[in-house]
Amino acid sequence: MNPLSKIAAVGAMFVALGGFAAAPANPSPTTSPIRPVVAVPTSASQTAGGAVASAPTSAHPLTAEDVAAYFDGMLPSEMERADIAGVVIVVVKDGQPLFERGYGLADVKAGRPVDPDTTLFRPGSISKLFTWTSVMQLVEAGKIDLDADVNRYLDFKVPPYDGKPMTMRQLMTHSAGFADASKDLFPPDLQHLKTLGQMREVTMPARIFPPGTTPAYSNYGASLAGYIVQRVSGERFEDYVAQHIFAPLGMTHSTFEQPLPKGWSTNMSKGYRTASGRPGPYELVQMPPAGALATTGSDLSRFMIAHLQDGDYQGQRILGAKTAEVMHGLQFQPVPHLPGMALGFYQEPANGHRVIGHAGDTGLFHSDLHLYLDDHVGLYISLNSAGTGGAGSLGSGLRTSVFRGFTNRYFPAPKAAEPATWANAKADGQTLSGYYIDTGRSEASWIRIRSFLLGQTKVSSDKDGIVTISSYRGLNHQIERWREIGPLQYQAIGGASRMAAVVREGKVTLIMRDDYPPVEALQPVPASLSAAWNLPLLYVSGAILAIGALTWPLAAIIRKRYGHSLELSGRAAALYRLSRAVCCGYLAFGYLWYWLLSRGGHASSSSDGIVRLIQLLGVVCVVGTVAPLMDVATVFADPGRGRWAKVSSVAIAAACLASIWFAVSLRLITLNIAY
Fold first, then answer.
1. Which of 339, 291, 344 is nearest to 137 (CA)?
2. 344 Cβ partners below 8 Å, 6+ apart?
3. Could you say which DSSP state residue 228 is in?
4. Which residues pair with 355 in a beta bridge?
5. Alpha-carbon gap, residue 231 to 199, rounded angstroms
6. What is the DSSP string of 371-422?
7. Which has the closest alpha carbon to 26: 268, 280, 269?
8. How far is CA 287 from CA 137, 182, 240, 343, 413, in A?
9. CA-based nearest residue to 35, from 86, 71, 69, 70
């Protein structure tokens, strides 16, 4: 989900309703440098707009020839449409690479094609699978206990949550309770890049959930596990993975080193927002175990084969068979009847087949890895561009279309009768209705604006109990409609996606869908922060502040034009002017937050000085709110002031108080700006 379109609303509402509009981040190009290799029609499993049609009843043969025909027919045209420069895709089967191919360009300007054997891509959080595999090697060696307090392995202390310690199993299932942390995740240069050995210097995110209860994705948690690997093994994390995973698997084109080793840059793919735009720089990752891997499609095939064969690759073993089985098995299921977490991998729906996988995203590269465990098949795809129309997005982009299309083509679902609507659908729909926030969120500092104001999801139900969830959209980017088919279990109308909820003592605690990774869920928002009243309050107060700010100079211009002077004097005139100045201050305060977030500066500590200046303006406005409050008293005490003066003074004072509420509830003014 791209937050910028939502962030723009803040600036717009603080300035005036409709007063500002943000330009699209990725305007559609008129031309694209990518051209289709062949003009083969898209597979029948894909409908117009990228939506996946009903699964066929008979499978295509999973052969190199059929896979080549399928992807040759789909990917080049989809890449051109979405303005994606290059893609690498790999399929393995029965312990061997079945299909490895690069599409498009690794370097648009140089015309260098993507080569699955030599072209390096950045698979983002798929890097975590190497971290988790390293952990399981040390578990197998008896050096790490999955259920011991992690403080046993650290040289700093992770405080308990309500007296409960954090364990490695919770880190591996993203249930340790950490809030999201994004600051300096992608440092701008090597000077801001810390080594893993400096882990204790990295600000630990707040723990906002009891351990082992709530899914909340954490890059910090994965890096903490990598730091434990480094301390327990006595080897640098980068060296440990190279020695104990890359070397036995023959992954000679893979590294966690940052910057890349000397001579490797020649094979590194450029990363793009769009193929028609300029390439971005090599993305540095502050916490290497969470996402610093650079690798090729061919190397990833070896890793997939090893896991599909319970740790063995051509006689070289990276895990014992029993250890691999434990790692691949269900460990944490936040919502019954839906996929859950294995150890590091997560379960995925695939027409009844047992599939685990992981996605990975940097700012420029977007990747997916899927293991069909019982079928001994693996699928890996990586894009070197975000593309247009959400092509690189998790859950609704090209890679999701590839996974679903591949699954439907080679592992089709059997025909099944349409399930009946659950008898209690109307009442359950009313129970679910309300506003929700993601569990994968930050509650520190002003980043709360994303989840607690602009990122809320609205769940509603119609008279028949059909549920809609504003953030749950299909591959066609349309909001899906859900019909209850069992107690608090739903199926997308016209699709196969499932959704379910957990209700305790009549209150919803979690909502999740099966085709999104089970590392996050929806959780009811506290009533005090609900968008049901906070957003209207934002709109109204923003409009009042804008009117107050705009009418101040307009009135002065009109008075000057007709030779009139301000009828107020002394204290009344001073409070009138100060009140309008405070309106201008609050508008600037809101707009500056919009400006900062929209330019991406919020992600780096290099913007801390700007943040402090914006917060200083906010403090001035909060203190200055005394003026509008005093103005109300002055206006009502003067019998000569008219109705408009009274109404406007009360409205401005109320809008300023509302602005203070947003500054406090969204933590726009805090001593600590860690996030």
1. 344
2. 128, 129, 131, 132, 133, 135, 172, 327, 358
3. H
4. 348, 372
5. 11
6. EEGGGTEEEEEEESB--STTTT-TTTSHHHHHHHHHHHHHSPPPP-PPPPPP
7. 280
8. 21, 11, 16, 20, 40
9. 86
Per-residue pLDDT, 24: 32
- Does residue 527 sit in helix, strand or coil? helix
In this structure, what token pair is assigned to residue 368? 């997916």
State the DSSP code for 207. B
Furthest C-alpha separation in the chain: 95
The pair of three-digit structure tokens given for residue 189, joined into one six-digit string: 């240069």
Q: Assess whether pLDDT exceeds 60 at residue 602.
A: no
Answer whether residue 591 shows pLDDT above 50.
Answer: yes
Q: What angle do CA 473, 477, 482 make, to 5 degrees?
A: 30
Contact between 516 and 498 under an 8 Å Cβ cutoff? The reply is no
Is the Cα torsion angle 13, 388, 50, 333 positive or negative in sign? negative
Please report, as a single letter, which amino acid is at residue 455.
G
What is the overall mean pLDDT for the chain? 89
Is the distance from CB of 519 to CB of 216 less than 8 angstroms? Answer: yes
Q: Which amino acid is at 178?
A: F
CA dist., res. 40 & res. 183, Å (int): 45
- Residue 215 to residue 348: CA distance in whole angstroms: 15
